[in-house]
Structures are given as C-alpha cells and as structure tokens.
TrEMBL record:
Ubiquitin-like domain ranges (all copies): 30-83
Name assigned to this protein: Ubiquitin-like domain-containing protein
Residue spans crossing the bilayer: none
InterPro entries: Ubiquitin-like_dom, Ubiquitin-like_domsf
Domain of life: Eukaryota
Amino acid sequence: MTIQLRVSGPRGEEKVIDVCENEEDLKKITVKQLREKITRELEISADIRMVYRTEQLEESDLLLSYGIRHMSTIHTLLMLPGGIIG
C-alpha cells in the first residue's frame, strides 16, 4: 500500500502526495526528505516550514517521531524575509 499524506499548501491549495511504498519505508523518511518532495510537488521555490498538528517539524527528525502516518495532514507555511527594525 502506498503511503500518502495530505498537504495544505501555503497558497491554500490542498494535495495528496505519495511519500513511500509501505510502512517500513515510512520509518526511514526524514522531515527534510518530505520538505523536498512537497516543494517539488507544489512547485514552491521559497523556504517553507511544515506543521503537523501543533508542532513545527524539524528537518533532521524522522516523520515517525511525530506520529505521522498514512493520510496525515501536513500544513506548510512560507517563510518570508523581514524582521523587526529597532
């Protein structure tokens, strides 16, 4: 069974993407690998942050460490340049 995730894109789009072939492969996928797949699938060239439930996903972590499984929803946010001028 192909493992898929729902992705809520930064422009309001929603898409289901194929992540891997099975549960065993899912145990090895990092957040960084998922980010690369999402930016390719949604054709995003800007930096994005990803959120699952209420947690921001850290690139070096495995998806498994967040409890992400088949058909979980990942939310993406564009990281825009800027800051406080003081």
